[in-house]
Amino acid sequence: MAGSVNLSVGALVWVEDPDVAWIDGEVLEVTGNQIKVLCTSGKTVVVNASNVHHKDAEAPQCGVDDMTKLAYLHEPGLLQNLKSRYDINEIYTYTGNILIAVNPFRKLPHLYDSHMMEQYKGAALGELSPHPFAIADAAYRLMMNEGISQSILVSGESGAGKTESTKLLMRYLAYMGGRAAAEGRTVEQKVLESNPVLEAFGNAKTVRNNNSSRFGKFVEIQFDRGGRISGAAIRTYLLERSRVCQVSDPERNYHCFYMLCAAPTEVVQKFKLGNLRTFHYLNQSNCFELEGVDEGKEYLATRRAMDVVGMSSEEQDAIFQVVAAVLHLGNIEFSKGKEIDSSQPKDEKSWFHLNTAAELFMCDPKALEDSLCKREIVTRDETITKTLDPESAALSRDALAKIVYSRLFDWIVDKINSSIGQDPNSKSIIGVLDIYGFESFKTNSFEQFCINLTNEKLQQHFNQHVFKMEQEEYEKEEINWSYIEFIDNQDILDLIEKKPGGIIALLDEACMFPRSTHETFAQKLYQTFKNHKRFSKPKLSRTDFTILHYAGDVTYQTEMFLDKNKDYVVAEHQALLNASKCPFVSSLFPVSTEESSKSSKFSSIGSSFKQQLQALLETLSATEPHYIRCVKPNNLLKPAIFENKNVLQQLRCGGVMEAIRISCAGYPTRKQFYEFLDRFGILAPEVLDGSSDEVAACKRLLERAGLQGYQIGKTKVFLRAGQMAGLDARRTEVLGRSASIIQRKVRSYLARRTFISLCHSAVQIQAICRGELARQVYDSMRRESSSLKIQKAFRMHLARKTFKELRSSAVSIQTGMRGMAARSELQFRRQTRAAIVIQSHCRKHFAHNHYMKLKKAAIVTQCAWRGRVARKELRKLKMAARETGALQAAKNKLEKQVEDLALRLQLEKRVRADMEEAKTQENAKLQAALQEMEFQFKETKALLMKEQEAAKKAVEQVPVIQEVQVIDNAMVDKLSAENEKLKALVSSLELKIDETEKKFEETSKLSEERLKQALDAESKIIHLKTAMQRLEEKISDMQSENQILRQQSLFSSSVKSTTDISPSPATQEPQSTTPVKKLDLESDSKLGRSHIERQHENFDALINCVNKNIGFNQGKPVAAFTIYKCLLNWKSFEAERTSVFDRLIQMIGSAIENQDDNDHMAYWLSNTSTLLFLLQRSLKAAGPAGATPQRKPPAPTSLFGRMTMGFRSSPSSSNLAATASLEAVRQVEAKYPALLFKQQLTAYVEKIYGIIRDNLKRELSSLLSLCIQAPRTSKGGALRSGRSFGKDSPTSHWHSIIESLNSLLKTLKENFVPPILCQKIFTQIFSYINMQLFNSLLLRRECCTFSNGEYVKAGLAELELWCAQAKEEYAGTSWDELKHIRQAVGFLVIHQKYRISYDEITSDLCPILSVQQLYRICTLYWDDNYNTRSVSLDVISSMRILMTEDSNSAASSSFLLDDNSCIPFSVDDVSNSMQVKDFLDVKPAEELLENPAFQFLSE
User: Fold this and answer.
1) How confident is the model at residue 325 (pLDDT cuts 50, 70, 90)?
2) Which end of the chain is more exposed for a tag (fewer CB within 10 A), N or C?
3) 251-282 b/e with 16+ CB inside 10 Å = b?
């Protein structure tokens, strides 16, 4: 795969290095085939040109997510790409449709949460970042769309992460195919929980992995036609049984042993377990604990998982009982017995463990001892018992432990399969294969031989699949191609499994001969395959052999091949455990017809494993395969370490390099047309002028370049190996010449700029000199002028000083004279003022004495007059008290009348009921008599008809012989008499029927009259109750008036000045102005309908009216206001039972069935939210049932009542406004139906709000996927011709979003939806836009570019302009919801990012973004326009450290944003956004105003 073109000096290349596999460098010298390269490590090497690979200088610093996009497809390119992505925690990379997963050895929970699964749901493969979810989704979509079964093959060496990848795949498939549990556990839950159970019993710590699967697993998940999981089956392959007895340091045995030893105390005591270090099967290694693993918690978790998969507690106890028995078996040691070559338990400790094992197996201890220490040989004549020596007994013990554990594991797998169940009607399956990777150790035994056979089989399947994908790619692009040769490993498979003569066949043959050893087996192999090119014999060994696998040479040691290939159960062990009293243990060893004899039957593990592999390959061949290659970056199992040689070896073992070789055999370089033109358009710029046809431009460019063998597909250019390097070399030459021209122009520009600068400096120096001379002349002139001014000023100063001295002397003399005259005047004035003061005090004393005498006399007069007035007022109060007593007596009299009327009404009702009952009975009797008479009448009539017919027949039958009249007069008379009787009976029956009908009519009239009387009585009772209420109001007014009079009398006695007393209020109190509505008795009697029927008619009229769009009035919905007014008037809020609320809820529910019409939904959102506001302001919960309601006294309407209110508070504008508001909205005590209606109405407001919001989200979702990535434009012909290869205008999608927002805003405004709801809708919509754009930015690398940032920034500017135009009243804080995408886009469009520090990013540029989000953006960023770099490596390292520290934090586990679909407002928010006074001028529905029953709406 080395470059085949000539290299020039300065070219960047890859050369082989013994330490890091490949190292990059720069070509210093080219001498024939010898190339001198300066490596980046500093050393200089000379290599052959055939061992050098080109390096792509323009490859992204952070790598590409699909390695088929690399310009150079070779080993160092792949290795560098994986390392670059691993350094930034991008552990997944595509190679075509193959996913390469590099184990990070750290938890990355943000990559695997449910939100991430939602992102990959339905996304095309390659659209988002590489991920196992993408592979699983692709398999699921292919299965659903094409109906073809799928398989996902997960491979890699131990520790590469196969098991975790398999768990992720199964978790995603369970997510896609899951369903709600109907009864018990669902199938997908059982499938997922089977993983921890199988891991407990089939996984162990190895040198390379702490949780290595020691068996292969193929999970076959079955799906029904709807894509739901309907069943599953788990197949396991080649459990490593030898690990039960043999563990090397620092590995561990299977996890279940350590879990059982760490189980709760009662479990440990039950199974007689102790310290795990005391068990032989565990203490062969010094590793007993795993870092970060609590075995006790793992035991409980395994028990819970076993519950989920359907194992009962008894079965679980039996499983762990067998595990404990295996541990005790391992501690049985043997010593020589009394006989020769015999053995027995060594000591008391061994006897204890033997008895404990027998107790746990529930078998006879003696029989267990015999099965371990003796063998029975069956001959034709007799059975011979043979004793075993201690070494053979120990081997027998280990054989028993291995077979017991193997049967236990098989039982667990069978139990899981039977619990999950298989669907025979399954449409298709998705199989997930978790199989061991290629293994090559220092010591390779039978297990490695079988594992590598598996990988050879799978590699052949993989090669065929890759070859098929290459063919499909060429056919899809419609290019001419010839057959591509690839290495087929069929010869290796024939070497191993061919019959006869293969290695497995020879091994089975050796196992059948008792005297065969591994030496004889090895010699047989040497003789058979001495000329085979894939088989060789090591020079220093007599029993080893080497096979040249596709991944490398592996040397196998044959010492244990024969023993490990024998799969048989010792007859004594079979008989012992089959006879166990424990049903579970005996079920593990059932008796078969073949094993009935006392002999051990041989079965080949190798042959059975080969058959299993063949069945697996047949299953895989019937499915569409998908591949995940897991890679372990280092053998230390630590994060952030990438060992190149180790990874390269795994890529070779995983077949990735073979896939690359197959690609290179055809057309390894494949470029999209626009990418090809962007990169190589500079080789022939003239082909791009005035052309918009990319295909034609590519053809002309390749013709100008003189290349041969390339192909032009439908969307790509296909180049042969080495052609890309040739084009790059030419491009480098063109760029070099262009650089020389640019340098020449720059140097010319710099020289000219220097010359112009010198000229400018000379002119500046001359100007400075001339200026200095002019300044000196000017300075001398200024000095001369200054001297003249100083002299003039000094002379003026002397003259002015003399003048001031003369003036000061004159002023001093004048001042003294004027002061003396003023003091004389002041003395005179003081004397005059003192005399006036003395006179005024004397006059004041005389006047005060006279005033006090007059005041005393006036007080005496006032007291006398006030006493007379008070006595007069007292007489008036006594008179008012007498009137109150009279009113109280009238009230009592009316109450007695009401009680009498109530008694009369009850009596009338009883009489009416008795009469109706009697009438009913009488009617029943009359009807019965009538029916009886009618029946008799019918019988008589029928009898008469029969007799008449009989007579006619008799007359007809009598032959007319002679005309002789024979008349039987007696018979005729008799018949006539009977006929008359019958007629009389019929007439009497008719009379009785008429009388009965008359009586029935009279009874009906009487019942109607009594019904009218009852209605009149009810109306009278209503009138009396109204009168009683008015009387109570009058009494309360009188009491308040009396109280006011007393207060006023006390108040008037303390007033200083007399005031006029208002006349008695009793004569001025106005009558109550509240009208009492009369019952419309005439209409009731006319229609003859009850009150309930009229009420239902009113309900129907209201619902029929508001069900239509009756518009708005004063900006408020008429329907909501009309409903509220009707409910308030009908007192429905205070009713214990009413159907109007249910009718309204049903009406609203049926009205919003058409959820796609936003205009209709906005109308109902406005109505329901307004009605909810009115209910919130009106309803208050009533007191507890049974409690006496404490009713507030009615508002006083009399003069003294208003005076009382006036004493408490003074009238103000706010009180007047509140009073006016109460006219529109009134508080009432709500019963349960009203409160329930309010809750239902709240739910409908939230539902309609969510419908409108989700409608807009669905409308925007398709546009947002187009807005995140700028339309592609070509750099060549598009710029020159003025036309773009893109189909749409760059901002057309953003304009569509703005149009959708404007349309919804217009709809909401037209329907007068409360602004608070508009704000919440647009806030959540902008949050959704932020989430969609930001998540796409983090998941799609092609979106994280400089040009795309500019495109999205322009779109965000459009949204900002929309928010400004919509104003805060409707937009609210919508613009702030875009903070994530705004800051991310702001970071993308910054130049010179490498100069920005981490603190500047977090504090200034992107303070809202988390470390994970910043790290993702920085590592995904690439510049497709200006080739600018991302942030520095120091910043990346700082972010990585912080991410490692925060990896355990649940809050920082996900870097993606979630869609917030909650309801962001409460009833109080809606209530506070509106005011009651807005409804003062709202008019109800005009249609109802015409109805007489709704006249209250006009009041």
Assistant:
1) very high
2) C
3) bbbbbbbbbbbbbeeebbeebbbeebeebbbb
pLDDT of residue 967: 47
The CB density around residue 719, as the number of other CB atoms within 10 Å, is: 23
Dihedrals phi, psi of 811, to nearest 5 degrees: -65, -40
Distance CA 919, CA 1483 (A): 52
Q: Is 96 left (phi over 0), alpha (psi -120 to 50) or beta?
A: left
Residue 654: phi, psi to the nearest 5? -80, -5
In this structure, are residues 332 and 350 in contact, taking their beta carbons and an 8 Å threshold?
yes
pLDDT at position 1043 is 63
C-alpha–C-alpha distance, residues 1445 and 1452, integer Å:
10
- Is 437 catalytic? The answer is yes
pLDDT tens for residues 901-950? Answer: 778 778 777 777 777 787 778 777 777 877 777 787 788 778 778 877 77
Whether residue 8 lies in the annotated active site: no
**HSE (side-chain half, CA atoms, 13 Å) at 389:** 3
Active site residue 158: yes
| Residues in the chain, overall count | 1499
pTM: 0.63
Q: Which residues pair with 1230 in a beta bridge?
A: 1181
Bridge partner residues of 1229 (DSSP): 1180
209 carries an active-site annotation: yes
Greatest mean pLDDT among 848-857, 1447-1456, 1473-1482 lies in: 848-857
Amino acid at position 467, single letter: F
**Contact by Cβ (8 Å): 1358, 1333:** no
- Residue tagged active-site, from 157, 369, 439, 447: 439
d(CA 989, CA 994): 9
- Per-position DSSP letters for 153-170, written without gaps between them: EEE-STTSSHHHHHHHHH
State the pLDDT at residue 138. 92
Please say whether the beta carbons of 197 and 306 come within 8 A: yes
Predicted pLDDT of residue 752: 94
Query: Of 84, 93, 97, 158, which is the active-site residue?
Result: 158
d(CA 1358, CA 1295): 8
Report whether pLDDT(100) > 90.
Answer: yes
Please confirm, yes or no, whether 1349 is among the known catalytic residues: no
When the pLDDT of each residue in the chain is averaged and rounded to a whole number, the result is 80
- Alpha carbon 1085 to its chain's center: 64
- Convert the pLDDT of each residue in 1339-1349 to its tens digit: 877 788 888 88
Q: Which of 96, 231, 431, 437 is catalytic?
A: 437
Paired tokens of 957:
């039958």
Q: Which of 84, 163, 463, 1410 is catalytic?
A: 163
Which pair of structure tokens corresponds to residue 1460?
């917030």
552 is catalytic: no
pLDDT band at 812 (very low <50, low <70, confident <90, very high): very high
pLDDT score, position 53? 87
Eight-state DSSP code of residue 1499: -
Is 212 known to be catalytic? Answer: yes
| Catalytic residue from among 68, 213, 343, 1198 | 213
Q: Where residue 1073 falls among pLDDT bands split at 50, 70, 90?
A: very low
Q: Which two tokens stand for residue 452?
A: 């590598």
- Which residue, 259, 270, 161, 220, is CA-closest to 426? 220
Residue type, 985: L
| Residue 1061 scores a pLDDT above 50 | no
Distances (CA, A) of 1168 to 282, 316, 1113, 1176, 1223: 72, 58, 16, 12, 21
pLDDT of 1221: 43
Mean pLDDT throughout 221-238? 88
| Proportion of the chain in helix, strand, coil states, percent, rounded to 5 | 60, 10, 30
Name every residue whose Cβ is closer than 8 Å to that of residue 1461 and which is 6 or more positions away in sequence. 1250, 1254, 1324
User: 61 and 84 in contact (C-beta within 8 Å)?
Assistant: yes
Does 1189 sit behind a cis peptide bond, omega within 30 degrees of 0 on the bond before it?
A: no
Is 825 annotated in the active site? no
Indicate if the pLDDT at residue 303 is higher than 90.
yes
